[in-house]
Write a structure and sequence with these properties.
By secondary structure, the protein is of the alpha/beta class. The protein is built from ten helices and nine strands. The protein is 37% helix and 19% strand. The longest helix is centred in the middle third of the chain and has 16 residues.
Length: 287
Amino acid sequence: MDRVVSASDLRARVSAWRRDGLRVGFVPTMGNLHAGHYSLLARAREHADRVVASIFVNPTQFGPNEDFNRYPRTPDADREGLVAHRCDLLFEPAVEEIYPSGVASTRVEVPEVSEPLEGAMRPGHFAGVATVVTKLFNLVQPDVAVFGRKDYQQLLVIRRLVTDLRLPIDIRAAPIVREANGLAMSSRNQYLSADERARAGVIHATLETMCAAVRSGQAVRSIEESAHAALTAAGLVPDYASLRRAEDLSEPGDACCGPLVALIAARLGKTRLIDNLACDAAAGSEM
């Protein structure tokens, strides 16, 4: 695996691949890599001849009271992991390389799909995500890019961005990788104590209960209230436990039909966790 830090070196390497007729895949990350990230690389490898990964902790997607400075950075371990999982090129830029005019300059916003749930809880977060992903797409110019389904709303934002900006990029989603108790793998899981990590399995269990209730015909509001109560009883502090239309995260109403997704964000101790599950005909299937 080679490593570059400048846009010019990145473009030179990708251009050489393109001259050879090779298809380029891309996996953007913020580092502190784990099995979930490596599953994205494997997915990209299925659809591309060469795979680029980026590691960039993006300051514009963190709010003023969030954990930008606390976000774990493990560059040496990340590079070793990328080599082991057959990454061809690592792009590891400095902030100035991504934001040459400063972080408060040009912004990309994706309305509607960015507004509910995480957008309401974390104002400005998805503008930061959309901006940095657009910049990275312009730099790498991949044929295919892979994102995890764990950040479901982010996945919808990226898909809408690519559609609206007419970017010639195939967006692929990778299934959620889970721990033995159902907890979705995340860099933030390392903040959990052993007891908290065990108790966090209630999030996935609650999502499964929500989807089972959907299939049994229970009312949406009742399902959400029961989920909120279950999380609270387990010692978590829910930000939301919500059923939404899978295509755009709009509210379904109790008479809704069509694909739904259950989404949860909850705090356990000092750690905020998110997860989701498709509520289609197959019990517990992932979106």
